[in-house]
Design goal:
Layout: H1 5-14, H2 18-21, H3 32-49, H4 58-73, E1 77-97, E2 100-103, E3 105-106, E4 118-123, E5 131-136, E6 141-142, E7 145-146, H5 148-151, E8 158-163, E9 186-189, H6 194-203, E10 206-227, E11 237-242, H7 250-270, E12 276-281, H8 289-296, H9 301-304, E13 307-311, E14 321-326, H10 329-342, E15 348-349, H11 360-365, E16 370-376, H12 393-410
Parallel strand pairs: 4-5, 5-8, 8-9, 11-12, 11-13, 13-16, 14-15
Antiparallel strand pairs: 1-2, 1-10, 3-9, 4-10, 6-7, 10-12, 14-16
Length: 412
């Protein structure tokens, strides 16, 4: 029987217990590159196998404990830092029309309905029907414009948003205003329903939208790791990556986590001059809620830190591409040198002064110095973003080497 590479990786890694798959021990006789690849593959396989990584859920908190243990094994002083939130627990998210049900997911920063829902005509926003139909990308924009005004428009009672991802299906938008939810109930549905919903909107059909959810007091965890510096009074380097998301997030979050762990291991072994703080934050899909909690507990850190390294989405995503975001020329040159030495590839460099994507945005707006690696991937925010098919593990390993080298340089 022929066994594909993906099948082999799934059998050898996902089939193992998570605790065993997460071990970061190099196999005897492997080269440094091979050992780095094995560590990255084991970490991503274990992360993927844990389940759906939404903030403040049982899976998310168990994943935090796993990652803390992995970071401690890599040589850092690891702990969990808790923060409180109002977790969104969805009871029903469905659109009913002509005896058919289309399941979806509400905006987590919007309004909700009761169990009965909202019944009315479906149509484009210009028709001023009770329920508006739009198509949105993963940034929550419709036709290049934010739907903020539509969400606040009292002419409608609810909105159906067809998600527009790189792969057909449901690709939810992040809840950027999670801390201050507002507006109409918005039900996100997969792009495979475009034709059906378009026909219903054209005819002004009656539909029922149910987006019933509760906001439940909950606790989530940031994983914080410290590597002591030989000169503890020097401003610290901070290395950050998000670790939560809508689904399993193997390529969306897995590459960043693997690079983060590799940097913990290499920096710890290097005995750096300055302290290095590593944070893997929850709350990414909720407007960077966990990173805000980390920063709010450390007033002034954004500018006080010597530099920040941000490890964003889709690092090493299969059929994806990486881009670099930097606060200044020196940071960009340092990172590019390490990336080129490691044999990794950057397809795009963001023009200086551009507000960056991901958690690097928080540092940019706060006036900090940073370099950020992130990228694109065809399964971004998609339920099929799973190990091993969604991940180019060789690319992840190359970026892990580059990130570790950059962190050692910046740590002195």
């Amino acid at each position: 029987m022929h066994v594909t590479r993906a099948q082999f990786l799934r059998m050898t890694l996902v089939g193992l217990p998570a605790a065993m798959a997460g071990r970061t021990v190099a196999l005897s006789g492997q080269s440094d590159d091979g050992a780095r690849r094995s560590r990255a593959a084991a970490a991503i396989a274990a992360y993927d196998n844990q389940g759906i990584h939404r903030t403040g859920t049982d899976v998310d908190n168990a994943s935090a404990r796993w990652l803390m243990q992995e970071a401690a094994r890599a040589g850092g002083e690891a702990r969990l830092e808790s923060f409180r939130l109002q977790r969104v627990d969805v009871q029903a998210a469905v659109l009913r029309a002509n005896g058919r049900e289309i399941e979806g997911l509400p905006f987590f920063d919007g309004g909700f309905t009761d169990g009965i829902g909202v019944t009315g005509r479906l149509g484009p926003p210009r028709a001023l029907t009770e329920i508006a139909l739009v198509r949105v990308d993963r940034l929550g924009t419709a036709a290049g414009q934010a739907i903020d005004a539509l969400r606040r428009n009292s002419a409608h009672r609810a909105i159906v948003a067809i998600t527009d991802g790189s792969t057909p299906g449901l690709s939810p938008s992040n809840a950027e205003d999670f801390a201050k939810p507002y507006g109409l109930p918005v039900l996100q549905v997969g792009s495979e329903h475009q034709e059906t919903l378009g026909a219903l909107a054209e005819s002004g059909a009656l539909v029922t939208l149910i987006a019933r959810a509760e906001r439940t007091p909950a606790t989530a965890q940031n994983v914080v790791v410290t590597v002591a510096g030989r000169q503890p009074t020097l401003p610290p380097l901070v290395v950050m990556t998000p670790r939560s998301g809508w689904w399993h997030c193997a390529s969306e979050r897995g590459g960043g986590i693997a690079c983060w762990l590799e940097a913990v291991r290499v920096v710890s072994a290097a005995a750096p001059a300055r302290p290095v703080v590593f944070v893997a934050s929850s709350g990414h899909e909720l407007g960077h809620y966990g990173l805000d909690a980390f920063i709010n507990a450390r007033p002034g850190l954004i500018k006080q830190a010597s530099a920040w390294i941000h490890l964003g989405a889709n690092i090493g995503a299969a059929n994806g591409g990486a881009r670099l975001q930097s606060s200044d020329d020196e940071m960009e040159r340092l990172a590019l040198s390490a990336i080129e030495t490691a044999g990794a590839t950057i397809r795009q460099r963001i023009p200086r002064g551009t507000v960056p994507a991901g958690e690097a945005r928080n540092i940019h707006l706060g006036g900090g110095r940073y370099v950020s690696i992130l990228g694109s991937g065809p399964l971004f925010h998609h339920i099929t973003d799973r190990w091993p098919d969604a991940v180019d593990i060789d690319a992840v390993a190359r970026f892990a080497g580059a990130v570790a080298s950059t962190a050692v340089s910046l740590a002195g």
